[in-house]
Amino acid sequence: MSTLELRGLTKRFGEIEALNAIDLTVDQGDFCVLLGPSGCGKSTALRCIAGLETITDGDVIINGDRVNEKTPKERGIAMVFQTYALYPHMTVRENLAFPLKMSKMPKDEMEKRVRDAASLLRIEPMLERRPRELSGGQRQRVAIGRAIVREPTLFLFDEPLSNLDAKLRNDMRLEIAALHRRLEATVIYVTHDQVEAMTLGKTIVVMNDGRIEQVGTPDEVYQRPATPFVAGFVGMPAMNFITGEIRNDAFEGNGFEIPVSVDHEGETLLGVRPEDINLGGDHGEGEVEIIENLGADRYAYLKETDTRKRWAVRLNADESVDVGQAVNLSFNVERLHLYADNRRLDVTSSS
Amino acid sequence: MNSERKAAYALVAPAVFIVAVFVLSPIVQAFINSLYRDTPFSPKTFIGLDNYRTLFSDSVATGTIEFTLIFVIVSTALEILIGLGLALVIHEHFKGRGLVRAAVLIPWAIPTVVAGVMWKYMLNDQYGFVNLVFYGSNVANYVAWLASEWSARMAIIGADVWKTSSFAALLILAGLQSIPEDLYEAARIDGANAVKRFFRITLPLLKPAILLALLFRMMDAFRVFALVYVMTQGAPGGSTNVLQYYGYQKMFPEQQFGYGSAVSVLVFVMIAIVATILIRTVRTRIYES
Amino acid sequence: MRRVVFTIVIVAVVLFSIGPFMWILNTSLKSPQTIAERPPTIIPDLQTEFFAAAVDEHNFMRYVGNSAIVAGLTTLLAVLVGTLAAYPLARLRMPWRRGILSLVLAASMFPQIAIVGGVYRLLLKLGLLNTHPGLVLPYTALTLPLAIWILTSFFKEIPSDLEDSARVDGCGPLATMWRIFVPVAAPAVFTTAILVFIYAWNEFFFALLIMTDPAVQTLPVGIAKFPGEYMVPWGELAAAAVIATIPLVVLVLVLQRRIISGLTAGAVKG
Ligand SMILES: Nc1ncnc2c1ncn2[C@@H]1O[C@H](COP(=O)(O)OP(=O)(O)OP(=O)(O)O)[C@@H](O)[C@H]1O
Ligand SMILES: [Mg+2]
């Protein structure tokens, strides 16, 4: 059974169309990550689900109920905000108890839930402190705790880790993953960080400009990006693109041909990931501008001399190049991505 | 959404109601009444702009207008200058600054009536501190400051300046606090001395705050009343009469409701003109920076 | 050298600010004999006769009581109504928001003389002349602009996530205002209360015209109309002035910081 369903969800702020007919189904227990660039409408989508924005058109359905007109409280959701939004005038305990107090829960039940959440998140020693006396990570835990105590149908997270430093962010990411497994909760999680999306998400929803570009597992999104946007957005460094044409079962690029078998003729966009490019060959050439050593991997950034096109290439362990060196490139033809009319072409590349 | 909007209106309603009933509607009535002859001795009759004609031809009225303008210009000018000086002092870091700031606030906090009484006594012709300072034990020379035209005018202005400079100082202090410290650092590195730093950095950046202080002080100066009531009642010979006091005399002791309303409309219009001009200037200043 | 000059400047500033008050305080502590001396003596003989006279003969505590009632009620009413209005003006989406704010600000600029006629006739009609509510209502109207501006500017600074969070936790607009905004902005609410209180404690013009019966008059009127047309009883008057001022001096000494922040917030944001 689906916990959340969006049908043609549309949101306009005056002239700005923040969401354009979003359709999405999220199953019970899913960890669904909304991923996309800044301003693409992720937060707006989350806020529409939460009931913090009125929707312009379409339906939000939670557990089979259409909740368009319902208040956030009636929707059975809990939300964790980027800024944590802890109430500064309340202690941690009062913060945790606040949503329960608002729903007039009996006192002993309330205390039990606060205790359980506090022990789950290891914030018991801080219960009497105020938010300003907590570290960033502790505040984050309290914010999550305040969501947990309500035992909601649906957890909503809006970039909950973006205010933490890199190390803490890693730790919290693992904790959130563990928490999700323990609570068997359904989560919608907004981020623009693809590492977070890939590591946390069971489902990734890639958004752009108020639309959904692709819904899939992390693997699907990475291995078979459905649109050029997804192909370019997911992956660091970004995928390389070449425009060319498909004629007679071959992709014609700038001075090379790769045989492909697709159901398409004419203008085509070819994408190839940095790790699918090798040194040597005739698919491209360029002069090494920068070499980036990330420890586990090394990347070379090239610039073609005549077209000024740039390439990102992952170097294999045995490959070594110098800045200023001219090199030739070849693609791993098994792993090419072809797009026409903003659509992925199903390709069984033949050699 | 609709319910949110309803809640918003419901919450704003009491405030709007109170302000409308006790401020806005009386203003409208004042405009209307100023077109009538309205006294207890004759029936209320519409006389068009006659009240205003009287207001601009009667010599007592024009004298009052004249002193009101003198008062507004001189007192605000002095208040801004002294306020700037006070602000510069209480902006510095020094031990006991909190207490000095509190001391500076005291004239602002004291009831205007009390300030008037204080200054009246300070200027008293027999026991006044001012006479003591000027003439010491030479009692025969003691002056009745409030009895002659110009010294009485200066006294009223002086009392107002004493009472309200601290408010100007606070606004200017807020301006000073918003000037980033590194601007001064940079200027010091460029070799600008204290005087240059004041005229090149402090003063230009303070302009919005000073204009704001000017706006508030000017509008308030047009409304001077308590000091005149307590210190001189307009004497000697009406030389310290101001519009708000004149309007009060006409409207209440003399019961000339229509004419008094015309006086009040004049005060209103003067304030409106000054406010419009100054608010424009403040706006453009803020947009420029 | 610089330090000496600066110290002199500070002493001058302090003398300028509190000198006149010190003189009246000095006078109030003299005895009837020393006050009549010419030239005036600088050192008072620390007598409380004038205070006793002000309280006993002139029944001055009655004015204190009236002022406390009027200023207290005005503060309650203005802060309450101002808070109610400031919250939607700062946070809720509503048409006419800017218009209402500007109108309220404009209302604070109107001269009292242009308002008092209408207010007087209205209170006459309602039978509220010479009553405490008769003064509290116009005072509330006159202090609401200040209250609304200060509170709106503080409410605007409260992060919107806090508000959203409250809604998710089950608060409607009223609960959000009452349980989140008011406590979080408590310092601002308190500052507003002080400023309104000082205004109402000091106001003279309306008090003079609306309260003609000595039984209900407030301190400023009591002082301005202190009995004695020809011979001013300076000693008693000085004592009365000191009584009227002491609460304010205490407020300023204790709450200097808040008052400054409140006044500048109210003004700068305008
Ligand atoms: N209250 C609002 N009024 C007007 N426009 C808005 C409002 N909220 C969002 N928008 C617009 O809607 C679009 C989507 O905004 P949204 O906040 O959903 O983006 P986002 O994907 O969460 O971006 P980010 O990663 O920066 O948080 C943006 O163009 C934004 O300017
Ligand atoms: Mg966002």
Summarize the structure.
By secondary structure, chain B is mainly α. Chain B has helices at residues 2-33, 50-57, 59-91, 97-109, 112-122, 129-135, 149-177, 181-189, 194-221, 226-231, 243-251, 257-288; strands at 36-39, 42-46. In chain B, helix 3 (59-91) runs parallel beside helix 7 and helix 4 crosses helix 7 (149-177).
Descriptive notes:
The complex is a heterotrimer of chains A (351), B (289) and C (270). Chain A is α+β, with helices and mostly antiparallel strands and 351 residues long. In chain A, 24% of the residues lie in helices and 36% in strands. Chain A has helices at residues 42-50, 92-102, 107-120, 136-148, 166-183, 194-200, 218-223, 228-233, and strands at residues 2-13, 16-27, 31-35, 57-62, 65-66, 77-80, 154-158, 186-191, 203-208, 211-216, 240-247, 250-252, 257-259, 266-272, 277-293, 298-303, 310-315, 326-331, 337-340, 343-344. A six-stranded mixed β-sheet of chain A has the order 6-7-8-3-9-10, with helices on both faces. Chain B is built from twelve helices and two strands. In chain B, helix 9 runs antiparallel to helix 12 (257-288) and helix 11 runs antiparallel to helix 12 (257-288). A two-stranded antiparallel sheet of chain B has the order 1-2. Chain B has one domain: MetI-like (MetI-like fold), CATH 1.10.3720.10. Chain C has two domains: 1-47, no CATH class; 60-269, MetI-like (MetI-like fold, Orthogonal Bundle), CATH 1.10.3720. Helices cover 77% and strands 0% of the residues of chain C. Classes of the chains: A alpha+beta (351), B mainly alpha (289), C mainly alpha (270). At the B-C interface, helix 1, helix 3, helix 4, helix 5 and helix 6 of B face helix 1, helix 4, helix 5, helix 6 and helix 7 of C. Adenosine-5'-triphosphate (ATP) binds at residues 13, 16, 18, 36, 38-44, 192 of chain A.
